[in-house]
Amino acid sequence: MAENTNREKILELKNVVYSFHTYGGIVKAVRDVSFNLYQGEILGIVGESGCGKSVTAQCIMRLNPEPPGFFSSGEILYKGKDVCKMNHKELMELRGTEIGFIFQDPMTSLNPTMRVGKQIEEVFLHHKGMSAEEKKKRAIEVMQKVGISDAERRYKQYPHELSGGMKQRVMIAMALVGNPSVIICDEPTTSLDVTIEAQILELLLRLRKEFNTSIIMITHDLGVIAKLCDRVLVMYGGKIVERGKVQDIFYKTAHPYTQGLMNSIAGLETARDEKLSPIEGTPPDLFSPPKGCPFAARCEYAMKVCNKYPPARVQLTEEHSTSCWLTHELAPKQDLRSRNEKKKEALAARKTAEEKAGKKADSTDSKQEEAAGV
Amino acid sequence: MGKYIVKRVIAAVITLLVLITVVFFLVRLMPGEPFTSEKLNPIVKENMIKYYGFDKPLIVQYFQYLGNLLHGNLGYSMKFTNKTVNYIIGSTFPYSADLGLRALAIALAFGLLLGILAALNRGNKLDVFCVILAIIGTSIPDFIMGAFLQLVFGIKLKWLPVAQYTDFKHTILPSLSLAFYTMASVSRTMRASMLEVVQQDYIKTARAKGLSNLRITWKHQIRNAIMPVITIMGPTVAAVLTGTFVIESMYAVPGMGKYYVDSTNNNDYSMILGMTVFYGAFLIFCNLLVDILYGVVDPRVRVGK
User: Fold this and answer.
1) H/E element holding A146?
2) Least confident of A68-77, A231-240, A275-284, A347-356
3) How many angstroms separate the Cα of A83 from the Cα of each of A123, A240, B304?
């Protein structure tokens, strides 16, 4: 982490454990999560539904309903202050002005009975020194910045008068207007079509460049991660199973779950008749999480030890670490990539064999034709 | 908006016409007739039948009635022969409306307040209290409620008068009795609606903006939660303002309620029709008002530019 020390640490999660009381018992949604966020970086959190990524993100601003949610242990330090111990007033000052939040579904995340301009302005509500005109000016400025054309007119419109992409821009404007140091995006493009998604991602990149804002990007779309992020956390069963730079995650994959995620998406080189390989099974039950590695039950490399003891975090390089027993010196050497590659090679080999056979048939045909010609 | 209202008014006129037609012919199908008193001299009776036009074919009478109605004339009552229906409605409706408005004000103010407080304190003692009050209010019929209030506050405690409708003191018990049911249903609807709205994503958005709880409840929750209450208010307003038979007779309020029931018992054709037309028109007007109010509260239902 030598490289990181000269960057300013803005947010730090230390061993956060967050659970919910439910009728069925206590759900341990976030189990011992620690990570840092540095000034100006885009940090991706990836994982399948129910892995705890949204809860983690909402913990940072204490947006989960409390009760039933509660912190069992851990600290969340924002600029050195522990968010878990903040009172209501401090939280109000944190939300909106220090940390902005962009929600998943812009269709339902805007109040249908309030003009969008007013909704953006609300962030300034406890800024007493600002006049109404100033607030309006700021709101329109931000709306223009996020690419809302004709902002003066849009300012007076209601959410139902805007398209999905426009609504998400309004959400982004709302997150930006208070000039926050951190923006948390909880799957901001999931409900949008791909062209709008590309525009929104570009917008986020531009904002980072302009304001040096730190962004936490939560998604289950590896494509978004590849396009946007500097560093990535892979979450599974309420834990971070692998973390590293984007290049590490994509090219030096160290955890079988991460590899499983990669295998289950189609790339450009995926052949038409090639089958995608999903990860079999379902995520662990967080009412009673497994003793050992959460992924053991679904892991094709699982060993005896995986079910019994949780794997420790192993630092592979300065920034790349994983929690997997395969990294232990006694474990059999498995090359996660090569196994996938082998599968591909075998497939390619079969294809060329088929093609050759086809050619042979062709050539025999032509020989016969020649013979007939003679 | 203007176009929308014109459309609604035309629809209202058609609805009223259908209502009048159906009631006009239904009333004639009822057994008996208006002039059945045994003391009535046959010659007088014949004269009266002629006077009210009952000797003409029914269809002629029907168009005659419509013609009179166009002039706002509801005809003479057949029971209280020296009074017009217009006069009876005109002299009794103000009392019913006065009582109804007081009851509505109480019902809305306390109903909304209790509903909101119950939702905000979900699961607490206050919530349980409000829910129990709502169950009592919706399940106890008004004549029991009215009698109970008369007994406790009028006869036992002697705080308030039990009958007559003159000054403010006299209005309290009847308004409370009339308000109780509406208050209970308003608070129940509001509570359920508030609890539904608080789950919405935009409430979380509001929290993420760093707004205070008061602001979130006031600006984001209540305005969205009040829609179902407005929906039930249309028919309720019409029913409460045009008088209720039970409460008005219990507290001796000179309102319209009595005439509804009496007119049917007496086969007082013009009275039945007049009351129905008045109530129908009022109900349609209240529903139109509700629809316009929707647009004020929720921009999504605002129609036409």
Assistant:
1) none
2) A347-356
3) 19, 21, 48
Which chain A residues have a beta carbon less than 8 Å from that of B208?
61, 63, 95-96, 100-101, 103, 175
Residue B279 and residue B259 in contact, taking contact as beta carbons nearer than 8 Å: no
Which contiguous run of DSSP H or E holds residue A321? strand A321-323
> What does the pLDDT read at residue A294?
85
- In A190-335, alpha helices (H): 194-211, 222-228, 246-251, 256-263, 304-308
Under an 8 A CB cutoff, do B209 and A61 touch? no
Q: Report whether A42 contacts A217 (CB < 8 A).
A: yes
| Domain end among A282, A317, A348 | A282
Which secondary structure element, helix H or strand E, spans residue B153, and what is its range? none
- Domain-by-domain residue ranges, chain B? 92-258
Greater confidence (B58 vs A128) lies with B58
Global confidence as pTM: 0.79
Cα(B233)–Cα(A76) distance, rounded to whole angstroms?
A: 49
B201 to chain A nearest CA, in Å?
A: 5
Closest CA to B276 of B51, B92, B17: B17
B50 or A1: whose pLDDT is higher? B50
* Domain membership flag for residue A93: yes
Mean pLDDT of chain A: 82
Looking at the predicted complex, does its ipTM rise above 0.90?
Answer: no
Show the domain range for A11: 1-98+180-282
Residue A1 has pLDDT above 50, yes or no: no
Other Cβ atoms within 10 Å of B302 Cβ, number: 16
* Cα A26 → chain centroid: 25
Say if residue B304's pLDDT is above 60.
Answer: no
Query: Testing the interface with B: which of A89, A109, A177 to mutate, by most B Cβ within 10 A?
Result: A109
User: In chain B, which residue's Cα lies nearest the Cα of A159?
Assistant: B300
Question: How do residues A261-285 score in pLDDT, each as one tens digit?
Answer: 888 777 666 667 777 777 777 888 8
> Which CATH number covers residue A87?
3.40.50.300
Does residue A304 fall inside a structural domain? no
Rounded CA gap, A80 and B30, in Å?
A: 85
Residue (of B99, B291, B119, B293) closest to B203 by Cα position: B119
How many distinct structural domains can be found in chain A? Answer: 3
Question: Alpha carbon A201 to chain centroid distance?
Answer: 13
Same domain as A209, residue A133 = no
**What angle separates helix B227-241 from helix B168-197, to the nearest 10 degrees?**
160
**Distance (Å, whole) CA B93 – CA B159:** 28
Fold entry, domain B92-258: MetI-like fold (1.10.3720)
